[in-house]
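W.,

You were right to be curious about this one. When I first looked at the sequence I had no strong expectations either way, so I just let the prediction run and decided to look at it fresh. Below is the sequence, 538 residues in total, followed by the output.
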Amino acid sequence: MSPALAPLRVRIFRVLWLAGIVSNIGSWMQTVGAQWLLVEHGSSAAVVALVQTAASAPVLLLALPAGVLGEFLNRRTVLIVVQSVQLAVVLVLSGLTIAGATTPALLLVLTFLLGACSAVQLPAYQAIVPDIVPRPLIADAAVLSSIGVNVARAIGPAAAGLLVAQLGVASVFLANALSFAVFLAALVLWRGYVPPRGRPERFLDATRAGLRYIRHAGVIRGLYLRLALFLLPANALWALLPVVASGTYRMGAGGYGLLLAAVGVGSVAGAFVLPPLRRRFSASAVVSVSAGVFGASMVGLILLPSLWLVLLVLVVAGIAWIGVIATINGTVQSFLPIWVRTRGLSIYQLVLFGMTAVGAAVTGALAGPFGVAPVLVGSGVLLVVLAAVGLLRPSVSPEGKGRSIVPLPLTDVPPVEAAAVPGEGAGDAGTDAHTPVLVLVRYTVPEERRPEFERRMADVARTRRRTGARDWSLYVDREDTAVMVEAFTLGSWQEHLSQHLDRITEYDEGVLARARELADGDPVAEHLIARAAPARRR
């Protein structure tokens, strides 16, 4: 088997991948059927366009909560529940359509419900892949997942068109229900999943922790920025390709399907092209070159005189699209530590869907006054420029940054007391598991080592913030200038336990060790629990 297809050796991944393709085909068929039903009702173009909005808006609204749910609930259970709800919604829609009772407003409401289910499902589904695929194969699994999406994009609309023409719109909805049933059956029959165990957190605290991690994780932040900068101009191709097909090449729906099929062929080819490239070059280089090739393909779409050359260019564009999206997605999945993986992937989905919506809207709006061809060429040139900048200034490399969790014992806290909330049970009112904690760590650092120590402590600050610290500062003792004090606060003692036992990666442990090695002796830690001010007597 080709190395590109190696993840398919994992039986459950193979089953879920095939079931996912079937489900995605059904979703594309659902979109076409919904739009055609509105056309049959004589709805305006604006109302027809709302189908895409109703399907994608929930992802923007629910991505972060969905990430938290997928982090702390059994991901397989989440997927089973979501698939069951989607199946029920589509069956209701099918029955109403057969009875002739589906109104435009009702259709949009049910489409929104399906989009909400998809928003909850996406981060849980992506986060479950690293649970079942060995780490070296995660990037290849991401490529195969992207290929599945593009295969569905090519097959779904064409299949929906045939079904609508032969059997009516209700048959498309029933086909989508069947696709949900296939995916649901695969999940129900999967018995061997053991969910990773995480320490419970309050919903809002967990949300803030996920956002805090992304803010202070340079690798992930850089990847999301690269993704956003790529998607903004790149979506001009998807937004304006139908216009190019009908206007420039005088094609009908079949011709437009041919253009999409060319991109799909390129996506499949990308599965075989990318693995050797990733082994030889960095992820940043692969993303930059792929983005530049995609931009050049957009320019070629307008400037090349032959339809056959255009089809070839779209095949190349499909390879380049996978080169960007799958490489970033695979790198993110591999890099995110397990305790924040689903939350991090929910923000990935937020960037992906948000920038897709914004990019399509902006380029579509610009095409009105400036024309389709100038917008496509301008977007392509912008991508080439961004690719050149990416090659000259590559993003932070994830290589060599160990991702396994390394539990660290709490210093100066006896093991029996570590799991308990300080002050609890001693008659101390106002102290509980959610009371803020101030941690002070004292280091004795000779004067000649202090400049290097302070430089290394800048990395320590990022580690503390990534793993839960809300504030961080470094002080020098006024009475003894050899003593430096690291001070940081957390939302609760429970979060401090999580920071030590569940969140420190091998890379973070190395950062802490490099700072400690410049100090004389072991650092001394103190843990202070916030107390509420006593109420004043009136």
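Here's what jumped out at me. Strands lie at 437-444, 471-476, 483-490, 524-529. And, maybe more interesting for your project: DSSP finds 17 helices and four strands in the chain.

Coffee later to discuss?

I.
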